[in-house]
């Protein structure tokens, strides 16, 4: 195939794929998140997939399923995908154990890794996290070091190549000796994933020096590059790609660092994602602020709104815009950067574990407060029906009583004002107005509905009398 034929085939396939996605949005009314629409970036991914024997998908440990693309794992049956869970030092050991159980249950090849910790070891810095020490005993939750990860990647790639060679030998028995000679000298490990998940940092840590540019702004890498580690291993870095998805929103992609923070136009939506994920007390501890408490008629466990969080942050830091209003844009960018960098601790649990633990704790707290309020009502109330009502709705009853008293007070004040107005009208000694006599009006007895007009005519004059009087 020539270069021109390959170029036209790729353009045709890309256009058909885009049209199919557009049909899904129109026919099934699905909302598609923003994804990479540049054909040249996708070509970089295709070249990496063609070259690689082992495909490493780098994901963020705080929400691995958000950054995982299962479709890439089904492209070639002769290639295997390894899930490299980066930034694993930000997870507690118990959370890593749960994710390890989830990956093993779904037959996902995975490794825990921290590019930041590996870079610190190369530079001779001391590690401040305790997770590296806690995971040394368990291989499932172990955070791999640089040398251990290189050995593991090379071993997995060589195993895939050997399996491919044995399958080729099984298909063509007569060329077994030739297939052994045709084996590549180096195995190639390709790195793919979303922007800003740490692919470039991982490559630099594995190579041992800075080979690729690293920045917090996604989209730094524009073209794939190959890096020779040894005579048996070569790495291939792919630019970050945003894959199409129907589950996440644009605000969530901004909060996760997939889309650039400095280019966002609506900051409250992304801040609301942060407020929904991070508990209220952690936000108050990290930023030394006090968030407004929920109202009496609201749930006690509701997350703070984006406006409340931004207002509290701007007040504590003194961020004011030129118009004298709180500078919410500046505050939102700083909070999102802290959220992405890990200054604000947060993580997602595997599916099925979220409702059991986080929601269970919140419900237990709510139930504890409701039972305490119910015990107090038992001492004061004597009627059993009133006790059951107070137990069921301890918080809402106070709000309803306040609203009822407020309504009653409003009605009483309205009635009193009306009475005062009526009494004031009788104080003035005015003569009652006489009713005008309108009995002269003709009634409308017709069935056609038209108005009746009364015509006044002068009495007829006797012509004979008038003529004699004129002659005389």
Automatic annotation (TrEMBL):
Residues 344-451 are annotated as: Disordered. The keyword Oxidoreductase does not apply. Pfam families: MMR_HSR1 (PF01926). It is found in: Cytoplasm. Residues 416-438 have a biased composition (Basic residues). Residues 42-244 form the CP-type G domain. Residues 353-365, 376-388 have a biased composition (Acidic residues). GO terms for cellular component: cytoplasm. It comes from the Eukaryota. InterPro entries: G_CP_dom (IPR030378), GNL1-like (IPR043358), GTP-bd (IPR006073), GTP-bd_ortho_bundle_sf (IPR023179), P-loop_NTPase (IPR027417). Keywords: Cytoplasm, GTP-binding, Hydrolase, Nucleotide-binding. GO terms for molecular function: GTP binding; GTPase activity. This is CP-type G domain-containing protein. It comes from Triticum aestivum.
